[in-house]
UniProtKB/TrEMBL annotation:
InterPro entries: Acyl_CoA_acyltransferase, GNAT_dom, N-acetyltransferase_domain. PANTHER family: N-ACETYLTRANSFERASE DOMAIN-CONTAINING PROTEIN, SPT10P. The lineage of its organism: Bacteria, Bacillati, Bacillota, Bacilli, Bacillales. Gene3D superfamilies: 3.40.630.30. Pfam families: Acetyltransf_1. This is GNAT family N-acetyltransferase. Residues 18-158 form the N-acetyltransferase domain.
Length: 158
């Protein structure tokens, strides 16, 4: 059974380091940022979204836990923010990661199902996310889980 447990401070520090690095790498792969500026821009972007760290209003930072056989095994992380949108309260996934050792075992699907339940409890009417074009594995999972493409931005290198 997958549950979403609020991160503790140690988990948050580890999450923060990894998410800043991973976001910078994704922006480089996408051709959005130059390598020499990516880490700095990533740190700035994350700091703007989480100005109070774990205590940032409407930000929920979870450790994804598999609760099996009386044990709790951390299998990933999830960062979601809630806001008021045009049609009601909305959730937005800023980061989701299933640790490499647990990928391909259904944890992504079960994490998104757990988020559906959590978002409903918090009054959300929708969940949004952004997926990088090079992350086809995630894109296909989101489609399978009922997420629909709302717009597409494309570019061509010359």
């Amino acid at each position: 059974m997958v549950i979403l447990r609020e991160m503790d401070e140690i988990e948050y520090e580890s999450f923060l380091d990894r998410t800043v690095r991973d976001y910078a790498e994704d922006k480089i792969k996408a051709g959005t940022w130059k390598e020499e500026e990516a880490l700095s821009l990533s740190e700035k972007a994350v700091a703007q979204l989480l100005p109070e760290g774990r205590a940032t209003k409407d930000a929920f930072l979870y450790t994804v836990v598999d609760r099996a056989d009386g044990r709790e095994i951390p299998v990933g992380v999830l960062w979601v923010q809630f806001s008021e949108g045009k049609f009601g309260r909305e959730a937005f996934i800023y980061d989701i990661l299933i640790y490499e050792a647990y990928q391909g075992q259904g944890y992504g699907k079960r994490t998104l199902e757990a988020l559906d339940e959590e978002a409903r409890k918090r009054g959300a009417v929708s969940i949004g996310l952004h997926v990088f074009g090079h992350n086809q594995r995630a894109y296909h999972l989101y489609q399978k889980m009922g997420y629909e493409t709302t717009d597409i931005q494309m570019s061509k290198k010359l």
